[in-house]
Amino acid sequence: MVNVLVAKIASRKRRERNGSVVEKRKRSADGRFVQFFTIDGNSTTLNDDLTHVFMRNIEHVRRENQKLFGSVNGPRKK
What we know:
Blueprint: E1 21-27, E2 33-39, H1 46-69
Antiparallel strand pairs: 1-2
């Protein structure tokens, strides 16, 4: 006989942000979605917010480089 165990799976805790960095998506002139961030300039965590947005941009560029060139560092120099 099979024993069935039922349990709640705890969700991963996300890092709480105070809302000073907001991710937005808009359509560009050619109809494609463009993602961008807005930052509250009067935020007490402005330095952390700028670092967060910078790291997200770097992650995006590395993913695109991996797709295009097969390396996160871009094309290989000869």
